Amino acid sequence: MVSAVSQSSCLTDFGGLRVLTSLRLKWDEWSDGKQATHSRPRFIHSQRHSSNPTGARYGVLFPTTENKAQKRMPSLLLVVLLVEVAVHLVNTIGATAINNVLWNIYLALPTEVSKQADEKNKLQKEYLAIRRDLKATSSQDQFAKWAKLRRQHDKQLEQLEKTKASHDASKANFDRTAGIIRWCATSGVKFIMPWIYGTEPMFWLPSGWFPYYVEWVLSFPRAPLGSISIVSWQTACAAAVSLFSDAIKAILLFALGARSTQKGPALLIFFGPILLPKAIGYYRRFQATPKSPNPTTGALSPSAIRAISVFCSLSLVFFIFALPPFATENIFYRTASRLQAPTDVLFTRLATLRPGESLTHDDAVLRSKFVNLESRLLYLQYGPDVLISCPFCSTEDPNTYWFYAAPAILKPYIFNLFALSIATSAPFADAWVSRWRSFAATTTVVIAIIELWTTAAYERTPNAKATRYTDIEVLFQIMQTSRCLALGILDAVVATLIWLSATGRMFAKPLSPAARVESVIRQLLTTKSKLSAVGIVKNTSLRDDDLRGHIEDYWTHEGKLMREVMEEREVVEGINDALTRINIRDITRDAEQYALNMFPKPPEPPDDIVIRATGP
């Protein structure tokens, strides 16, 4: 067999090379024995690790396309990845949205379809204008004008329907063509590439790193053993694109929830995929809910105006106090000193900024309180007023500062509760205003509890590591600004809710049955009084000779005018045209039904009563 191999090595034609390859394969199977059935043949190693510049394959020197494939691999890898990204984007955005965008772009081009769309829009505007004029014209008082508008309306409607049908057909053809092109450019390419590049290795695996069956699976279906096939690469790219998309969503959810609490992002990431589709579904159902044809929106009541004025004034006051000029002074920022600056240096700089370059009484007291680093950290947490005024506070028990600062923290919330309780109390407010009292009070209490808890649980030790005054976190200033902003936003929201509910635009409660009955009775009484007034006026006009004469003259002139109009040729043609398109029987039946509804027939007596009445 060895001599056969040596003799075959002299062959140069392609058929001889094929024979040489098969003989080498047999030689490897004979030399390796049973190992050839359980592991990769050794000639594959020569294929993957050969330094032959011509690209030896199966241990034989003949030119192959391996080097060309390796040159194409980076572009092919990138093409497969881009195709998977395109497929994922199309599936995420949706075919309908993509078709609509492409259709709008296509209509912007100077084509016949765009001209047809412009013509349709023009016809639709003209049709709507004619329809509006037709509705505003009375068929009894202005019959000639009504008949002319009716003919124009029917003619315009017929043209519009033809144009719309042609436009819809063009849109359907465009959607079908766009769908075919989109499928061929994404899914079609994804399905065709494995057939074209099925035998091309994407890249080679390191020798001996993976078992034989793993390499066989990764090279499935037609790639060389020990390489990654295009099918495996497509699967990996699809999984990577999906994971990257999920990671982007998780990062967005994390960014949205990172400002609330420390546990918020984890809970948001966990419950976000569950709650977000439900929220979208609720929003779509709310949008699809049929609106009332006649929304009952009314003017504001005096109590609502008064409550809205109070809440808007409070909101404006809190927003003003949230501005920097009203913030409590921070001596570290004022003197541009770091937290570890000596006390003498700190207050010497502060004295140069005071009037007369001398410290005030409060500055002197605060200087005596700065005995160690802990006192400075407590200053950043609770502010200067607490350190200056507290008679029982001590750095050995930092909680005493919180007990002293709690009433000052609650002061704005108590003031806001007092103001809203007066604005929404029964003597000054109606039901539309008082319904938001519990919401405003509860929210105020919740914000106050959150601020108290945040101040008490604040970790002040990180400030001790700050080397610059710009790195210091001043909690008392942050809480002061946040407190004013939160109360201002709350009062503005309550004022908005009162306005929406009082005008009936939102949050309108249905009336009780008794209130609805009372409203209907009141409307009926008003209608009855108007009908009585009309009857009195008509009775007076018929009994008075002068008024009756004016009425007769008016109707005589109206009859003469209508006779002249009815004698015109256009009116006659319009009447004849209308009679050809109108079913007189249906109109007569509708008129009789209307008359019966307005003046129903009295019930007929039973037959036995009629028989006794007609008897002798």
TrEMBL record:
Protein family (similarity comment): Belongs to the WRB/GET1 family.
The organism of origin for this protein: Xylaria bambusicola
InterPro entries in UniProt: Get1, Get1_fungi, Helix_hairpin_bin_sf
Cytoplasmic side stretches: 245-616
GO biological process, one term: tail-anchored membrane protein insertion into ER membrane
Annotated Gene Ontology cellular component terms: GET complex
Pfam family, one: CHD5
Lumenal side: 1-76
Classification via HAMAP family: Get1 (MF_03113)
Transmembrane segments: 76-98, 230-254, 266-283, 303-324, 413-433, 439-458, 484-502
Annotated protein name in UniProt: Guided entry of tail-anchored proteins 1
Gene this chain is encoded by: GET1
Coiled-coil stretches: 120-170
Gene3D superfamilies from the UniProt entry: Helix hairpin bin
Keywords for this protein: Coiled coil, Endoplasmic reticulum, Membrane, Transmembrane, Transmembrane helix, Transport
